[in-house]
Amino acid sequence: MKLHTLLISPAVVLALSLCATAQTSSILGFTPASSAHESEIESKFKSVPSPDEERRQHHIFTSEPHVAGSKRNNELADYIAEEWKKQGMEEVVIRRYDVYGTNPKSASLEMIAPTHYQAVLREAPLDADPDSKNPAISGAWLGMSISGEVTAPVVYAHSGNPEDYDLLLKNGISVKGKIVLVRYSNPYSYRGFKALTAQREGAAAMLVYSDPQEDGYKKGKIDPEGPWGPEYHIQRGAITYDFMVPGDPQTPGWASVPGAKRIPIEEAESAPKIMALPLSWHDAKPLLENMDGPVAPKEWQGGLPIEYHLGGERVKVHLKIEMDNGLQPYYVVEGRIRGAELPDEWVVLGNHRDAWVYGGVDPSSGTASMMEVTRALGQLAKQGMRPRRTIVVCSWDGEEIGLTGSTEWGEQFADELRAKGVAYINVDEATSGQEFHGQAVASLAPMLEESTRSLQDPSGKSLYDAWKATIERERKEGAQSSQFSDSGVASESLADTRIGSGSDHTVFLNFIGMPVLGLGFVGDYGVYHSAYDDFFWMNHFGDPGYRYHTLMSQLWGVTALRLANADLLPFDFASYAGNIRQFVNELAKGKDMSKLDLSEVRKEIDDFEAAGRRLNQSLNSKLKSGQLDPKLALQMNHGMMGVERNWLNADGIPGRPWFKHILYGARFTYAHLELPGLTEAVEKQDWATAEKQAWILQHALEKNTKLVNELNESLQH
Ligand SMILES: [Zn+2]
Question: What is the pLDDT of residue 491?
Fold first, then answer.
């Protein structure tokens, strides 16, 4: 029986966590003998990463700004390639993609009425932080803004969501031809969706600012005294409409290898058609405090000591943005440790390299952790401990622009990845604090949870217990109320099985159909995408001792090694079925759902779950017996890899053909969206499409039930 099926009561959980710490316990997917061997390998691996090395690497990656396409970011690609070769990584190559890039030339914002104010558009240096004084730090800009110049009145449009514009209209305020001032929002909503909404509403430009209520002094002490954003911090970012199709906007669905066919930028669905600029609250305040119009509703008031108005007439600004958008090379660094026994089964690890400025947390904490993973993998290989399967590691470029490097790489190798890909493990922001958050497709949730039991959190607990404490606290606070609102597998599991977009796992899950994991330690973090997200911040607030960076390297390595070395891949399809049932239950609560018959879908879920349970039992008894024919193992593993692929629908979800996964998608805000095609049709009350999408789901379930049953039968013989 699998561990997760025992997670019924807290007492059982406790008992399990006690026995799981014993070295003799067996590991999901391993025979007793290979479990013991795997534990030995993992111990060796875990002993390599060190806080000093994590800090040293982190310092290298955060020493200069390194935005996508910059000279420094390309030098770092060379640096990674050279280091990997020294560490013992194999077949290290730098792959070039010629993509539509984005760079700032100049920007100015001037209030011309009712009083004059010239926006600073730069971040003030902090005495305590030498890196904040670097003249190479960029001013305010948003990736993929268009160039232009406009003089117009300013309207305050809260978070810039469609319902915000409805409220403005109710108050008689149109934003057509005007400049909208919106704020970054909590919970996070992707700024690109704000830009698209402003564009659709006919606004001439969008200004987006960081209100102190979201990430500044209203949350706590500000940098350099605390982790929150100071007065001048600017959240840069891209506004690419990559929720429509990620990657290079001119090559939707194929790779931007040099010479590839390109569509005109005017026809590119993911290229914004609006000017946009980010502001610190220092620059937003003069605009907000001079606005006329009705007083904004209570929820629209922010953390500044002023009364927020809707505006629309009195405040006029002159905005000018000059961009340098066009073709430029991005570079993905790729290295691997060739598998000793199954070189054509790949476990892929990735982290992006490009940063808005220094990228202290995002992404350089992940890059430092990655460099310690590769060092440890290299050492093991040199000592003859080569993984059974191949481990591929990639340093992505242009994640911040449109998930660009990973998308182009994934599109280039899509066929090979669909044949060979076991799983993808993403680490973007490795460490902004001490609380672990793990994401996994539901079939890998049990193995991720099990992996955390073998690691020690700096608090002294096992990482599993630390994670559990975090989840239980969040559950109490209702912070993840949606995740735990329903009974089902997700409510018993620690892993977050609701996977949206916004990082490099997207191409692997949504386009290729590979199972994904996402790992990160989080904490109070108010300097996201600003110049203050740097080495100083990490050493004072994020992870001063680099212990969580070290733990991340260990965890990343252990999960990769388990997937790479397992006798039988640790996929749990009963867990997957339980999760899908939960998604359907949530959908069924929607309006007018009597118009959609989901009984066949539910029946298929039950069948898939039963098949998954039977397979779990057979796999476990097979593993326990220790008798495993390599040919049979190969057949089983390839079959199990096929399950995730079967969740793809070649036509994609309605309106977004690139997004092919029928269980996982993302909203335009990047937020997770389960059963995306079906859910969106139900939300639109488009019952014909909903019926078709339900049919697609039903057939995918049927196909996977058949596949799992066949695998189970092969195992019996
Ligand atoms: Zn990132």
Answer: 54
- Measured in Å, residue 511 CA sits from the centre of ligand 1 at 20
Computed from CA positions of residues 206, 207, 213, 215, in that sequence, does the dihedral angle turn out positive or negative?
Answer: positive
Alpha helices in 571-629 (DSSP H): 573-587, 599-625
Instruction: Output the six-digit token pair for 529.
Output: 């995408």
Please give the distance, rounded to the nearest whole angstrom, from the Cα atom of residue 79 to the centre of ligand 1.
Answer: 20
Asked if 34 and 567 touch (Cβ cutoff 8 Å), the reply is: yes
Whether 210 contacts 186, CB under 8 Å = no
Measure 498 CA to ligand 1 centroid, in angstroms: 19
Whether the CB-CB separation of 643 and 662 falls below 8 Å is answered with: no
Nearest to residue 533, comparing CAs of 3, 15, 38, 58?
A: 58
CB 439 within 8 A of CB 497: yes
Identify the three-state secondary structure at position 349.
strand
What is the Å distance from ligand 1's center to 408 Cα? 17
Q: Kindly report the CA angle at 376 between 375 and 378, in degrees rounded to 5?
A: 65
- Judge whether residue 24 has pLDDT over 80: no
Q: What CA–CA distance (Å, rounded) separates 188 from 669?
A: 8
What integer is the mean pLDDT of 567-590? 96
pTM of the predicted structure, to 2 decimals? 0.94
CA 505 to ligand 1 centroid distance, Å: 11
Query: 400 alpha carbon to ligand 1 midpoint, in Å?
Result: 6
- Tell me the CA–centroid distance for residue 352 and ligand 1, in Å: 7
- The 10s digit of each residue's pLDDT in 629-673 is 999 999 999 999 999 999 999 999 999 999 999 999 999 998 999
Q: Which of 325, 357, 331, 369 is nearest to 66 (CA)?
A: 357
Rounded average pLDDT over 293-308: 97
Count CB-CB contacts under 10 A for residue 219. 19
- Measured from the Cβ of residue 624, the count of other Cβ atoms closer than 10 Å reads 11
Tell me the CA–centroid distance for residue 500 and ligand 1, in Å: 14
In the reported structure, the alpha carbon of residue 632 is separated from the centroid of ligand 1 by a whole-number distance in angstroms of: 40
**CA 716–ligand 1 middle distance (angstroms):** 46
CA 124 / ligand 1 centre spacing (Å): 23
CA distance 600 to 697: 10
Going from the Cα of 349 to the center of ligand 1, the distance in angstroms, rounded, reads: 15
Cα of 36 to ligand 1 centre, how many Å?
A: 36
User: Residue 289: which H helix or E strand, with range?
Assistant: helix 281-289
- What residues have a C-beta under 5 A from ligand 1, the ion? 362-363, 428
Is the predicted pLDDT of residue 186 greater than 90, yes or no?
Answer: no
For residue 3, pLDDT over 60 is answered with no
Predicted pLDDT at 476: 87
What does the pLDDT look like over 64-78, one tens digit per residue? 999 999 999 999 999
Query: Distance from the CA of 549 to the center of ligand 1, in angstroms?
Result: 15
Tokens describing residue 51: 């806080």
Question: What's the gap between Cα 58 and its chain centre?
Answer: 20
Question: Would you state the pLDDT for residue 475?
Answer: 87
* Predicted confidence (pLDDT) per residue in 103-143, tens digit: 999 999 999 999 999 999 999 999 999 999 999 999 999 99
201 Cα to the center of ligand 1, angstroms: 29
Separation of 228 CA from ligand 1 center, angstroms? Answer: 18
Q: What are the pLDDT digits (tens) for 480-532?
A: 444 444 433 345 689 999 999 999 999 999 999 999 999 999 999 999 999 99
Cα dihedral 343, 347, 353, 356 sign: positive
Helix (H, G, I), strand (E, B) or coil at 430: coil
CA of 278 to the centre of ligand 1 (A): 18
User: What separation in Å is there between the alpha carbon of 345 and the centre of ligand 1?
Assistant: 27
Cα of 61 from ligand 1 centre, angstroms:
14
CA 354 to centroid of ligand 1, rounded, Å:
8
